[in-house]
Design goal:
The complex is a heterodimer. Chain A has helices spanning 3-17, 19-46, 52-57, 59-67, 73-88, 94-101, 107-140, 146-175, 180-208, 226-231, 239-262, 277-301, 308-331, 335-339, 341-360, 383-389, 402-409, 415-424, 464-475, 478-483, 519-535, 538-542, 577-585, 596-602, 624-633, 667-674; strands at 375-382, 441-450, 455-463, 497-502, 513-516, 548-556, 561-563, 569-572, 603-612, 615-621, 634-636, 646-652, 657-658, 662-664. Chain A is of the alpha+beta class. In chain A, the strands form 4 sheets. In chain A, strands 4, 5, 6, 7 and 8 form a 5-stranded antiparallel sheet that branches. Chain A has a 4-stranded antiparallel sheet with strand order 10-9-12-13. In chain A, α2 (19-46) packs parallel to α7. The chains are: A alpha+beta, B alpha/beta.
Chain lengths: 678, 300
């Protein structure tokens, strides 16, 4: 029998031997995925949320909601890992190694055969189930169009590559060890080590520094783990994640085959196939675990990092514990704890040294602000900018990532921002205090790029008045206004429809008005909004309420598809003359303020709850008079001005539910109607 | 032909095989014997291509075996504890072996299975240890390979089955080119079947000879010599491995042919003298004793 036939027969044999896993995956995925999708479609229709025609129109969002990458990542990761662990567990039993390595096959062919069978048993059932769900069930609900199919296939590609990457990593972990448990731990470690370390770094720096701003967010770490790479496809990216996943898979596969070729046959039962790896892995795990111990202690104690000496003590304790646990896990022998004393000393010493570095803040890193002459540019990010120009419910909110906002606002005319940074240094820790005054402060991120090229982020708590004065001053510069103006990211070609939500009467969304626009009208609307936003001052807008919240979308009559571009929601204020004039030409005039009586007439009930420390109140108010009294005691505001302890849920007579943001303006009246004193 | 040339293998600090050289010629049944931990299993694994030597060469018919599928197709390795797939039946394992060894004789396997009273459709995990061993042997024999490496093949087999295995091996050797290499502690069985034995001790080869030659060149002699001085001179002139007295009866193990030894013994005017055939077990014990493996020290 030729090697080729033996290779294929080995794949078939392995699939037969692991028929139990193939059956579980197939049954779970083939039966459940199409069924869940069918149930979801049925729910939308029978629940009365959408008609069948509306579901068809919303196919892009429903396709994204079900077939988008994120929700399937855990399933893919688990099935890939299980396939790898079960497929290569034979490397942990000597009699199985004797059997397979005595076969007349080259080692890499044995490796390839098992690798292939494991890959097939996970990928094929999943792909089949998705295809059946999308084309059979989705087809029945008119969900299948060129656009939704594109979205579906992109997601399937990413998930298939994610499976390959996670699978290859888990296989690599298994060939590095002679014990399944170690293989599992190694696999998890390889997949999440880098982002976890970065997060830990951010957590520790945030705990022990006052002005630290974590510029290493998950978005920065997104290429450091295949799971995070797959996650970012929810942001519309495909090519870069696909390439990254392919690279992960290729690197892990090559490393796996190289390690396997050199792996001695007699390592079944050993922690690692090369004993020297043990100390390295122990160090890589124990040091971050020791540091995590410190952060955990501070988190549980509620301390802000002021007891720095304890940090060093806990780091030492954490490192010792981690070292002991790693020795036991690796060698299953308490005697090995003492035998590994040299590496233990290195680990403990390194952990304590790192902790000292964080606590001691050499060169006064935390407080440090270079002289203005050494700075090339500065930028700013704060919630006030977002909250004033756009509703924060935007799913792809403008500048929600601090890094993005900061980079857009980078300016070489930064004297205002520098003054703000110096002001901020005076208010260390104010937002963490229980002082009532802390509500008058805003959290602001300032970044400075040094003339030498380095970029540093700092976080300050700034009095809101001071911040708004600065933003107003900055708004005088046209370039700054444009940098924070979402209208300048709008492309007229990306939308042909606007949905308008009156803000003043905070009605549930049933009151939305939809206006279809031709391409030239879309451009006119964009131009009008740009002009209005160009003239507006952030400080002035902050004191006002918007008139409208506008959402843009693109509706394809041919495909009956909706697409919502980025930065789709913006506020329109009374002084946006050009925008309001354009809307008036299209026959839309925003509603004037409704009286509380008019609003109460449209409502069925109000559910009110107030939770603050030990104060906990909730009630449902149904009588019109009571609803009027309650609405008279509260004020509808933007999210950034809202009272976060207060929640009001409005249910209209038509059954629609909304959750506008409120602030209590008359505590006496509020208490009179609810019997509760906030 | 199997050749090991200066083969060394270490497992960490432990030296399993130390510069071992050995040859297994064609048309013989080779018995590999040795003390516990001597390196027998390691050697078999090395010949099977499972374990790679740290230094030296392992050649099968002049070709290296490690990572050589063409050579490995002629070797079937039966380890001490065989591996069968979860929930497999003998038929499933037959298919697995057929996949690896093109010359697998399915018909012969079916006949042997029936003769051994093993059901082809029964799950192997329900077999007893002995039955699993039987199955291993039958699979190995049916594989049709030139070389069959057996580690503790008689362990767990009943006397009838052991006899059957020996008969099967003998028959195979007559019918085709078949060279079994058997590692075992059951020296009585090996004695019946093997032509050639190799004795390993602490990673080294103590001896590798034809069994008949081995017996021919080692004698166990019992005699009574009245004159102590003559007895002393006699023992001094011989290559004695062990000597002990039971009263006036002198028993000693000595290297040399029967004729040479008895002539020398007669020269000492014994009252009584006779030569007793040595078993393989006795040869093993005396040779390893000389090498320092003193069993008496374990129990004293």
């Amino acid at each position: 029998m030729t090697s080729k036939r033996l290779f294929h027969n080995l794949i078939r044999q392995d699939l037969r031997n692991r028929l139990w896993l193939v059956s579980i995956l197939s049954a779970f995925e083939l039966l459940l995925i199409p069924v869940i999708y069918l149930m979801q479609m049925d729910y939308y229709v029978e629940g009365g949320y959408w008609t069948a025609a509306e579901i068809a129109k919303s196919r892009m969002s429903t396709t994204e909601a079900f077939f988008g990458t994120e929700q399937w990542i855990p399933l893919i990761a688990v099935s890939a890992s299980v396939a790898a662990f079960t497929g290569f567990a034979w490397l942990c039993a000597q009699r199985k190694i004797d059997y397979y390595h005595a076969m007349p096959m080259k080692r890499e062919h044995i490796f390839l055969a098992f690798f292939t069978s494991g890959w097939l048993m996970g990928t094929v059932p999943f792909a089949l189930s998705e295809l059946i769900a999308f084309y059979a069930v989705g087809g029945a609900y008119r969900q299948v169009t060129r656009s939704t199919a594109g979205l579906f296939w992109r997601s399937l590609l990413i998930l298939a590559l994610l499976y390959l990457a996670v699978y290859a990593i888990a296989v690599l972990a298994m060939v590095m060890t002679g014990r399944v448990v170690i293989g599992v731990l190694l696999s998890v470690m390889i997949e999440v080590y880098a982002p976890v370390c970065l997060l830990l770094y951010g957590c520790l720096m945030g705990t022990f520094n006052t002005f630290w701003s974590d510029n290493i967010s998950l978005s920065t770490a997104r290429f450091l783990s295949p799971l995070l790479v797959a996650w970012q496809t929810g942001e519309g990216r495909t090519a870069a994640p696909a390439a990254a996943l392919l690279l992960y898979a290729a690197a892990a596969f090559l490393a796996g085959i190289l390690v396997y070729r050199r792996r001695p046959s007699e390592t079944a039962g050993a922690a690692y196939v090369h004993p020297r790896i043990a100390s390295v892995i122990k160090g890589m795990v124990s040091i971050p675990c020791g540091l995590l111990f410190v952060w955990f202690f501070y988190m549980m104690s509620g301390s802000s990092g002021s007891h720095a000496a304890w940090a060093v003590v806990w780091a030492l304790v954490g490192a010792v514990l981690a070292d002991v646990v790693m020795e036991l896990v690796q060698h299953l022998d308490p005697a090995s704890i003492l035998k590994g004393w040299r590496s233990a000393l290195v680990i403990i010493g390194s952990t304590v040294a790192l902790m000292l570095l964080v606590v001691a803040k050499p060169f006064d890193y935390d407080q440090y602000l270079p002289a203005e002459s050494r700075i090339a540019k500065m930028g700013i990010a704060c919630d006030e900018i977002n909250g004033i120009l756009m509703p924060e419910t935007s799913y792809s909110g403008y500048g929600q990532e601090q890094k993005e906002m900061v980079s857009r606002t980078m300016t070489s005319d930064f004297s205002e921002l520098y003054a703000l940074a110096e002001e901020g240094k005076k208010y260390a820790g104010i937002l963490n205090s229980d002082s009532e005054d802390s509500t008058q402060y805003s959290s602001v991120v300032l970044a400075y790029r040094k003339k030498t090229g380095g970029l540093v982020y700092r976080s300050y708590q700034i009095p809101q008045d001071t911040l708004m004065d600065t933003l107003s001053a900055l708004s005088k510069d046209a370039a700054f206004r444009r940098s924070v103006n979402p209208a300048y990211d709008m492309k007229a070609s990306e939308f042909n429809r606007i949905d308008l939500q009156n803000w003043l009467n905070y009605q549930p969304y049933e009151e939305q008005t939809t206006i279809d626009l031709s391409p030239s009208e879309a451009q006119q609307f964009t131009d009008a909004l740009r002009k209005d936003m160009d003239r507006a001052e952030l400080g002035t807008l902050r004191e006002e309420k918007p008139v409208l919240a506008v959402t843009r979308s693109y509706y394809s009559a041919k495909d009956q598809d909706f697409e919502t571009p980025e930065y789709s929601e913006v506020y329109v204020y009374p002084e946006y003359e050009n925008t309001l004039a354009f809307l008036a030409k299209k026959g839309f005039v925003p509603e004037k303020t409704m009286t509380v009586g008019e609003i109460a007439d449209t409502l069925n009930s109000l559910q009110v709850s107030y939770v603050s420390g030990e104060k906990d109140y909730s009630a449902t108010i149904t009588g019109r008079d009571d609803i009027v009294k309650l609405l008279s005691s509260i004020d509808h505001v933007r999210r950034d001005r809202a009272d976060s302890d207060l929640t009001v849920v409005m249910t209209s007579r038509k059954g629609y539910v909304s959750y506008p943001e409120f602030r209590i303006t008359d505590e006496t009246a509020f208490r009179a109607v609810t019997g509760f004193a906030p | 032909m199997i050749e090991l040339k200066n083969v060394t293998k270490r497992f960490g600090e432990i030296s399993a095989l130390n510069r071992v050289s050995l040859t297994v010629n064609d048309h013989q049944i080779f018995g590999l014997i040795g003390s516990n931990g001597a390196g027998k299993s390691t050697m078999l694994r090395m010949i099977a291509g499972v374990v790679k030597a740290d230094s030296g060469e392992v050649l099968i018919d002049g070709k290296p075996v490690f990572e050589n599928p063409a050579v490995k197709q002629e070797i079937c390795f039966l380890p001490d504890t065989g591996y069968f797939f979860q929930n497999a039946t003998p038929i499933v394992m037959q298919r697995a072996y057929q996949m690896q060894f093109p010359k697998f004789d399915a018909e012969r396997f079916a006949k042997l299975l029936a003769a051994a009273g093993l059901s082809p459709e029964r799950r192997i995990r329900t077999f007893s240890k002995g039955m699993q061993k039987q199955l291993s042997v039958l699979l190995g024999v049916s594989a049709g390979t030139k070389y069959l490496l057996c580690d503790e093949i008689f362990d767990g087999l009943d006397p009838a089955m052991r006899q059957a295995v020996k008969s099967i091996f003998a028959r195979e050797m007559i019918d085709r080119d078949f060279i079994p290499v058997i590692a075992s502690h059951n020296l009585r069985e090996l004695e019946d079947i093997c032509d050639h034995v190799g004795l390993i001790h602490q990673g080294g080869i103590l001896l590798s000879e034809d069994l008949d030659d081995l017996r021919y060149h080692m004698q166990k002699v019992q005699c009574v010599i009245r004159d102590p001085a003559k007895e002393e001179r006699l023992l001094a002139g011989l290559d004695v491995m062990r000597a002990e007295h039971q009263g006036s009866l002198l028993t000693f193990i000595v290297r040399g042919t029967h004729q040479e030894i008895m002539d020398l013994v007669q020269g000492a005017d014994p009252l009584f003298a006779e030569s007793i055939p040595l078993t393989l077990e006795e040869i093993f014990i005396y040779e390893t004793e000389v090498a320092g493996y003193d069993v008496k020290a374990l129990i004293s």
